[in-house]
Amino acid sequence: MSANALTNSHTNVIALVNQKGGVSKTVSSLNIAYALANYYGKKVLLIDFDSQASSTLDLGVDATSEDTKSIDELLDPYVQNIQRRPAWDQIKPYIITPTYTTRERDDRNRMKWVDVSRPYGFDLMPSSINLSVTELRMGIASVNKQIYSGYLNDIIQTINENDPYDFIVIDTPPALGALSVNAIRAATAGCIAPTNLDIMSFYGLQSLISTIESVRDSLAEGEHAGIMGILLNLYSERRTIDRALDDYLKNFYPVHAFATRIPESSDVKKANASNLLYAQVNKKAAQAYKDLAAEIIYFTEHGILKWVQDEQSKGVNK
What we know:
This protein is α/β, with parallel strands linked by helices.
């Protein structure tokens, strides 16, 4: 079955999910959005669905400012049943285009450097700490101990009907609570499970896979692609333990792993300190995210069976 049949009619929605913290979900979300937009010309929206608001802050957006409209303000009246599903004119103000500052030569005086504001290339729905309160209310509003998983999906459907994106990327919190369940439900094109190369990060993958499969199985056949794959972060080919854990993953996990490995570098911290993205400050990272974005696009166009077959064929032909 083509993955196009598994997505919303216009938009490929993917979520970066792992209940463990410190596995580079936010770094992955930001750089995947950047790569899809800048290397492949895709129209991309990043939804920060984590109350820590790391994606929002990393893009230089002040989550505490009264001028910042965060997604909790949009969701909260809906969750509390104060209003129905938000309409497009209500959603639109919550979508912004974040920018970064770079130094370039002055066009009029080539000896002079000036600060220039440039867009990252994708749009953002910001988050704030108040999203944690909205998550609690999702639990209170649940019926028969079943959390309603469609809040975020309803918003994305409205966006899709009015100003569709090629890709919507969702950054999620380090827990399998109401926010993550809503993100998994909305990610009809598939979920990506980022993980670091350590055994503790691997332990939670089985329960994560089960949760994603459970959400997929609760929907109509073909409505949700399930888990797209496992993404290995902070990888070093020179480390024996990294290669060993990579092999362990291939041999003992029932889920395909992306062929692309995201390299480890101190430039991740350098990027955070300067409100830039890893792909903007490290050439190896830029190439890795470009390759990863190509895999994601291929998956959404051809489906996981063709993707796995092609990867296996590459291995045989090496």
